[in-house]
């Protein structure tokens, strides 16, 4: 059974900067674009809010979003947890939205390798899982003030690095920066492997300076806590959130968007 989406009236009430008139204007534009699918009011809200209420920027982002989704079926196609590849991806890496926000009001997307066997790692599928989980959360909870992606690199071995496709990395970072309806504030890494410099070297050519500068590499937990307080984290790191095992066990239907035919 599909999850219940947030009521748009609740989103308007929560965000006084979000204007119904602006959404109506964006809707009129979208309906005149023959290459775009029919969009819901919530979808339009997510794009406009993520673009800081700029209609022109939202139009560009919508175009890029649907273009990327159409041209990259290897990453974004077959969006269902019933797909064996997606099931394996969800088993291999935990991707979850932590219940508590940072003091600055950012939503934290937490990512951790749960199965360190490189044979079970598929980069394109992991991107698909990340996208499905993040967008389903936005549909349930509404737009996020900001997004911090927090990655625990423990369990990542050199065999995983060897499976990082340059083509998939380029597509991911283009989508993340230009098409995904989120306000990405920072990328936080901890439990750093010795080849982290090689991962960053692979990413850097496809990143805008502002995002690359927002990457933070934490060599101590105290450094991490200064950006993401301990209380926000799972119990395994001394926080008040559920344990990693518990969080990993909750990533089952209906928490994911089930319908592969949906626009998101």
Automatic annotation (TrEMBL):
Any one GO cellular component localisation term in the record: membrane
Pfam families for this protein: CRAL_TRIO
Gene3D superfamilies: CRAL-TRIO lipid binding domain (3.40.525.10)
N-terminal signal peptide: none
GO MF, one annotated term: phosphatidylinositol bisphosphate binding
Residue ranges annotated for the CRAL-TRIO domain, each copy included: 143-245
InterPro entries for this protein: CRAL-TRIO_dom, CRAL-TRIO_dom_sf, CRAL/TRIO_N_dom_sf
Protein name in the entry: CRAL-TRIO domain-containing protein
Native source organism of the sequence: Callosobruchus maculatus (Southern cowpea weevil)
